[in-house]
Amino acid sequence: MALAWVHEDTPRWDADKARTLGAVAPGSIEIPMLAPGDLAPGEWFRVERDGAIVGYGWMDCTWGDAEILLAVPPDEGGAGIGTFILDRLEHEAAARGVNYLYNAVKPSHPEGEAITRWLVGRGFQPSGDGLLKRRVRRS
């Protein structure tokens, strides 16, 4: 069952985003205080499998770098969805001429050490300012 990557042209806060981001471990991300239908800042990409949403990627480009977020519900963990999202976000960043991807693992994240190890295992390095960064690989 293939995963589909869908760019949301005009991202709006909706029940699917609230459900997916709300399912991740408390303290791991800051969920935006948006009402249903509000414009959602940044670029949003959803991952679908057989028409069902199984994750989200988010990217916000600033000054040639892109902050990224990956959200995969716990019941979908270990299925390769996070790696799929990271690969697709890097492809999107390369297409925009972005130099670095970065992610901040919040100190309150209950699985912060595991997430940090996962990102480091995919080429991210601590930057000294609390971020994990990786140069965008050009294909």
What is the topology?
Layout: E1 3-7, H1 15-23, E2 43-49, E3 52-62, E4 65-71, H2 81-95, E5 100-103, H3 112-120, E6 125-126, E7 132-135
Parallel strand pairs: 4-5
Antiparallel strand pairs: 1-2, 2-3, 3-4, 5-7, 6-7
What do you see in this structure?
- This protein is 24% helix and 29% strand.
- A seven-stranded mixed β-sheet has the order 1-2-3-4-5-7-6, sandwiched between helices.
- With 139 residues, the chain is α+β, with helices and mostly antiparallel strands.
- It has helices spanning 15-23, 81-95, 112-120; strands at 3-7, 43-49, 52-62, 65-71, 100-103, 125-126, 132-135.
- The protein is globular and about 35 Å long.
Please, what is the average pLDDT?
88
Count of extended strands:
7
What is the count of helical runs? 3
Task: Give the low-pLDDT segments.
Answer: none
Question: What tags apply to this protein structure?
Answer:
alpha+beta, globular, 139 residues, 24% helix, 3 helices, seven-stranded mixed beta sheet
How would you summarize this macromolecular structure in one to three sentences?
The protein is 24% helix and 29% strand.
